[in-house]
Amino acid sequence: MANEIQGQQDVLSIPVAGTPKPSNSTINTEVPRIDGRYKTTGTAKYTSDYNLPGMVYAVPVCSTIANGSIDAIDTNKASAMRGVIRLYTRENLPKIYRANATAGSRLDEHRPPLSDDKIDYAGQYVALVVARTLDQARDAADAVVVRCKEDKANATRDLAEGMVEEKLRQGNKRGETGPAFEVAAVKVDETYETPIEVHNPIELHASVAQWTGQKYVLYETTQSIFAQRDLLAQMLGVPKEQVQVIMRYLGSGFGGKLWPWPHSVLAAAASRDLNLPVKLVVDRHMMFKTVGHRPQTTQRMRIGATLDGKLTSLQHDYTSDTSILSDLAENCGMATPVMYTTPNLMVRSSIVKRNVGSPTAMRCPGTVPGIYALESAMDELAIKLKMDPVQLRLINEPPNDPSNNRPFTSRHLVECMKLGAEKFGWSKRNPEVGSMRKGDLILGWGMAACSYRSNRGNCKATVHLNDDGKATVLCGTQDIGTGTYTIFAQIVHAKTGVPIDHVDVQLGDTDQPEGPHSGGSWVTGTVLPAIDKACEAAIQSLLGIAVQTPSSPFHGAVSNELAFTNGVVHRKAESESSGVAFADLLKRAGLRAISGDGESAGSFQDRNAQAYSSHSFGAQFVEVEWDPGIARLRVSRVVSVLDVGRVINLKTARNQVEGAIVMGIGMALFEEAIYDQRTGHPLNANLADYIVTTNADCPIIDAIFTDFPDPIANTYGARGCGEISLAGLAPAITAAVYHATGVRVRKLPVRIEDLLTADAHSLTA
Ligand code: MOS
Question: Cα separation of 483 and 407, whole Å?
Fold first, then answer.
């Protein structure tokens, strides 16, 4: 092919891991989930599996209009129905306060539920029925009559209407894009659109709330037990010590369960008012309206370049939609200033308020639609330049973060692209549209690069070494299906030698030491240093016990002459085979357990955060098969290479990448919540009409990690991989679709109709 990838022959000489893998540990190997057995046998208790004695059922009454106000609610018929215990409207609902989100928390729907007569979106809760059974509550909710004054709903698809400009964010301007773009030798100026996407985790949102007389015990579908506790305490008007939030297992969240939604506080308020446990499950239809979605975006990309492909100007102007009750702006420009070298750059944003439910974070928030626009424009530029798209990215690789001139803690995007090209067989690509065949099919090959900011928060953890030789680790964070239980056990095993199946991991309860939310790929980098320190502290206490206990063979020794290796205390001068197992020492000392606490600070307190820029990187290579005879498009093959530092568990990490690829195919080809312009209702608010990727749509997936530990990010060199694994998929797919068909789709999802145009390449062409 014409455009050889520069330096591709260097692929195999990529340096291996910068730090050696710890011996006697499972780190960076494939470890099956320790909670897998509970999930596959149905014994893992998800939120709606909690059934408390005397529990009753709550069902919200949802607004059928998207804009207007309530004149009156007729509850007479519903209240008299069998099984109904109480019917709440704003007249009789106990006071719910406004919450003020603090550091580390957010509330996407600002107004407390049922607090006024205003209706701002279809599906908004206007009343709440509590009954003995779910069916009784549903029937009564249907019988409530709400009389409204309806105003015209704004569910416009054209985001240019009603646009509000936002402030320019830090790092989003360098040089002057206007004149630089004007004189650029090669230009791309295109607009890209992404629709509202709905999270749709299999597990429905749910709350099981109980007021015990002293405190609220709340079982919640949440990715953030502490944010849930703090914000609900404010809304319920009690000290946070009177709220305990529990979440042992989550059937995924994808960001939709990061922050509290109105149903939770309604269930809690009702449980106290009635002095009964209350279960409220948000049904699938309501989940399209009341628990968040990824905002719609329109993004104009202007890229100027020299004839040899050096970027001279990059301007990214975007608009996202939000609700009347939210100010959330989709941060589409997050990765744009970081990806490529260009002397002139500007990223500007604006929002449009509409009569829809409040949007929220959805996997790789902001960056995913942003990367779709940026990387699509880069692909279009490569075509104009007649340059290989990998090569275009390689020659614009920055030496350090161009948005702030700081060095990256670790950046191996070049290696991702080279390794991905190698594994995919990219050098065999013929860049001519429609030129690659497989029988009656036309093949399209596309690629994209991506990055996502790496974060680290504050965290506390506790480790107990027990006299039965087992260990317990406690940290109030969540496993949202990603493998958190398992990697915690791996760290304790690595530090203490306790076998993984003898490590009891306890998480998901606000009575535990405070850990981070499970979102934004925060958990791995945040929690591991705290567990590491907790293990160290427990070991130090154990060595103290070893020298103080009269029946210990080390009695009277100095503790710093002792070492702890694989669960055994021994003299440093002697091998561990001469030592004593910690369980034995604890028994001699008459102790049930010895404990250690660990703490790690977030990047905001970390001096490194001022000196470095920390991001993860990746490259995705995609093959599509286009069958022009029957207008069938399939993603047939994906190679994903991610640079996420040291991967702790290759099995669960790869599983996340596979899930993200499935999600990325949905974003590119299927997913879109379509709003009726007349009523403001999402028309396809169910899993029959809102199309998601199925098993039959899944390609052959090769999920690869570069394994360059990031020692500045944290002790284990690990950054999270949940978010970055989705970025880059959609633009790689649309690039492949272009390569197969000659049709550039700039408005997601790609529809078959888009490909049935006269321009589309066919086998007879
Ligand atoms: Mo993810 S949007 O940070 O749960």
Answer: 31
Helix or strand holding residue 437 (H, E): strand 436-438
Residue 765, amino acid = A
Query: Does the fold of domain 295-455+610-764 match that of domain 53-62+68-151+202-251+257-287?
Result: yes
C-alpha closest to that of 194 among 677, 700, 760, 733: 733
Residue 169's CB is within 10 A of a number of other CB atoms, namely: 16
C-alpha–C-alpha distance, residues 366 and 360, integer Å: 10
Q: Are strands 243-246 and 297-305 parallel, antiparallel or unpaired?
A: unpaired
Beta sheet of 84-88, edge-to-edge order: 84-88, 125-131, 56-62, 278-281, 206-211, 216-220, 243-246
Query: Which residues surround ligand 1 with Cβ inside 6 Å?
Result: 223, 253-255, 258, 361-363, 365, 519-520, 723
Strands (E), 166-296: 173-174, 186-194, 206-211, 216-220, 243-246, 278-281
The mean predicted confidence, pLDDT, of the chain is 93
DSSP 8-state secondary structure symbol assigned to residue 105 = -
Cis peptide before 749 (omega within 30 of 0): yes
Alpha helices by DSSP H, listed for 165-255, are: 177-183, 225-236
| pLDDT recorded at residue 177 | 97
Q: pLDDT tens digit string along 490-532?
A: 999 999 999 999 999 999 999 999 999 999 999 999 999 999 9
Q: Classify burial at 160, counting beta carbons within 10 Å of its beta carbon; exposed 0-12, middle 13-18, buried 19 or more.
A: exposed
Taking the centre of ligand 1 as the mean of its atom positions, its distance from the CA of residue 363, in whole angstroms, is 4
CA distance 437 to 452: 35
Task: Tell me what pLDDT residue 604 has.
Answer: 43
pLDDT interval class at 22 (50, 70, 90): low
Does 53-62+68-151+202-251+257-287 carry CATH code 3.30.365.10?
Answer: yes
- Picking from 736, 505, 746, the residue whose alpha carbon sits closest to that of residue 633 is 736
Q: Answer yes or no: CATH 3.30.365.10 is held by domain 295-455+610-764.
A: yes
Residue nearest to atom 4 of ligand 1 (CA): 255
Q: Which CATH class is domain 456-602?
A: alpha beta
Q: In the annotation, is 723 catalytic?
A: yes
The pair of structure tokens assigned to 187 is: 């230009």
Which residue ranges make up each domain of the chain? 53-62+68-151+202-251+257-287, 295-455+610-764, 456-602
pLDDT tier, 760 (very low <50, low <70, confident <90, very high otherwise): low
CA of 199 to the centre of ligand 1 (A): 10
What is the pTM assigned to this prediction?
Answer: 0.95
Span from the CA of 164 to the centroid of ligand 1 (angstroms): 26
> Using the 8-state DSSP alphabet, how is residue 632 labeled?
E
